[in-house]
Design a protein that fits this description.
Rossmann fold; 5-stranded parallel sheet; 43% helix; binds coenzyme A
Length: 159
């Protein structure tokens, strides 16, 4: 039993991400959701807002903690003394990118292992981009995100 780091942008956290986190919390002693600042991706929600929402959504999971980070994931892994990166696979098309990411991380730090959990079918089509687009245009995202996230998106987009 070890710590697993679940990195991502979480702009915003969706039910698909939550599914990964809650399943991982039963597999690992500690799960750290590591939210990347990623200014190059121009996130819609600030890092502080993404951290706060993710903490709210995962509040019921005792062994889950949420942190923000900038810089290399491998540096964070070292700092956290963790060797397991957790990633989700929704569809076959996720696999190519994930394989590249996993191999690149391993090339930098050979002791790292990337563990993949496959999404439940009902979450396989959710992405943060689609959720943001629907929310921005005033649509209903309540099936895909926690109520606190839906509310935050409504205030963010003034819809
Ligand atoms: N359910 C729902 N959606 C999911 C999902 C799941 N289980 N898994 C992934 N997604 C979606 C995300 O919502 C996101 O959607 P979007 O592109 O529409 O916003 C997309 O899949 C991919 O996002 P995410 O999982 O957040 O990954 P990312 O590609 O944004 O983040 C990092 C990748 C942050 C892990 C990577 O860039 C990183 O490690 N950065 C730090 C710098 C570094 O070390 N770089 C070198 C890497 S080798």
């Amino acid at each position: 039993m070890q710590a697993a780091i679940y990195p991502g942008t979480f702009d915003p956290i969706t039910n698909g991400h939550y599914e990964m986190i809650s399943r991982a919390s039963r597999l690992f002693e500690r799960v750290v959701v590591a939210i990347a600042g990623r200014p190059e991706k121009s996130p819609n929600l600030s890092l502080a807002a993404r951290i706060e929402l993710t903490r709210e959504v995962t509040a019921g999971l005792d062994n889950v903690e949420v942190i923000g980070f900038s810089g290399l994931l491998t540096e964070l892994m070292e700092k956290q003394q963790a060797h397991i990166i957790l990633r989700g696979l929704r569809t076959a098309s996720d696999f190519e990118y994930e394989l590249q990411l996993a191999n690149m991380n391993r090339a930098q730090m050979p002791e790292l292992e990337t563990v993949f959990l496959t999404s439940e079918a009902q979450h396989s089509y959710i992405s943060s981009t689609l959720v943001r687009e629907i929310a921005k245009l005033g649509g209903d995202v309540s099936k895909h995100v926690h109520p606190a996230v839906a509310q935050a998106l409504r205030s963010h987009y003034n819809t």
